[in-house]
Write a structure and sequence with these properties.
The relative contact order is 0.09. Helix content is about 40%, strand content about 15%. The protein contains eleven helices and eight strands. The protein starts with a helix and ends in a 6-residue tail after the last helix. The strands form two sheets. It has a four-stranded mixed β-sheet. A four-stranded antiparallel β-sheet has the order 2-3-7-6, with no helix packed on it. By secondary structure, the protein is of the alpha+beta class. A hairpin with a 3-residue loop joins β2 and β3. The structure holds flavin-adenine dinucleotide (FAD). Flavin-adenine dinucleotide binds next to β1, β3 and α11.
Amino acid sequence: MSDLEAFRLEARTWLEANCPAEMRTPMRGEKDMCWGGRNWTFQSDTQKQWLEAMAERGGTVPDWPKDYGGGGLSPAEAKILKEEMAAIGARAPLTSFGISMLGPALLKYGTEEQKKRFLPEIARGEIRWCQGYSEPGAGSDLAGLATKCEDRGDHWLVNGQKVWTSYADQADWIFCLVRTSSESKHGGISFLLFDMESPGVSTKPILLISGNSPFCETFFDDVKVPKNQVVGEVNKGWDVAKYLLGHEREMISGMGLGGSGSLGAAVGPIDDPLLRAEIADFDVDALAFAAMSERFIDQLKAGEAHPAMPSMMKYAGTELNKRRHELLMAAGGSDALEWDSEASRGGKAVRDWLRTKANSIEGGTSEVQLGIVAKHILGLPGA
Ligand SMILES: Cc1cc2nc3c(=O)[nH]c(=O)nc-3n(C[C@H](O)[C@H](O)[C@H](O)COP(=O)(O)OP(=O)(O)OC[C@H]3O[C@@H](n4cnc5c(N)ncnc54)[C@H](O)[C@@H]3O)c2cc1C
């Protein structure tokens, strides 16, 4: 038996013994996701037990080094663990911007002290992070950001406003882009970490069309931040920001995999031949996307992905997810628009469909991703 086969057997045996039955059932909605953090209320004892069991062996971040709370697995082993979890329908023990966004940036750009301080907390789900990038005047043109960060000798002083900050009102800490110099647009940005309970931080939720309110305006009013909480070099935060965005786009591209199995099987028999054909067409594209996604993740983990590939995958995955929900609504007819009843689980289908409208905006819009692909992959002249 090869080492990888032995690892697969060991992972399967461990999962069988340690993944509670409830954690092998499909999530019924966002409430079943475990976000962790100081203020997190577990949905059940088993959710807590599953997180703790996985965190204990580095399973929340299998390919991070053991010293930082990870499992120390090779990319091939991490992939096997993922496959074995998928085979029994195991839920992700932890969903976290710390894992999918900040962690990779800290691993590349953080000091040893920062890695030791922040990464194990992320791996155990103890601190929930939010992302302070966008501002009212800086979205697609992110480097136009104006949140001011002044060097006050023994600390930084931050003043300004962020917008669309997902879960800012529930997060413990923020990774935030700030302007430390106005001399150069891209060269005057720094990447700062701070506690959302710092005096001067406030949040105001914004309502989405889905009826949920997962993101906020975030205000900084004379917020004092310790000097050692800049990641990377001062004024060189743009490099960190871009690297993190690649990981964010990789995460968002996963929406294209949305659920397992064929859409045709999920919606059942459909009378309308045109709709049937559209669904079959979708299923073929979804299979192609899944294959492309597997290759992309392999290349990314091996450090061989083209730097613009996350943009390509983000675009493809989110447009596919939007199409999936359009088709689900079409197949469901007017009943699918029902918004409130218990039978519709509070209008889950329609709210999920409305939520997908944001997929091609969050993490950078589809138009911007296409611009990146055109310029950096196809070599077309930039705008
Ligand atoms: C659900 C959701 C969650 C989010 N969470 C966060 C978060 O946690 N933290 C955070 O910092 N931000 C977050 N965002 C913000 C997101 O990153 C921005 O909305 C996005 O980058 C677009 O910026 P904007 O909204 O300012 O739109 P704009 O940049 O004003 O764009 C408006 C329109 O112009 C188009 N456009 C702009 N520039 C170009 C160009 N060069 N070429 C072609 N078309 C162009 C865009 O495609 C878009 O259609 C979130 C957004 C959503 C919807």
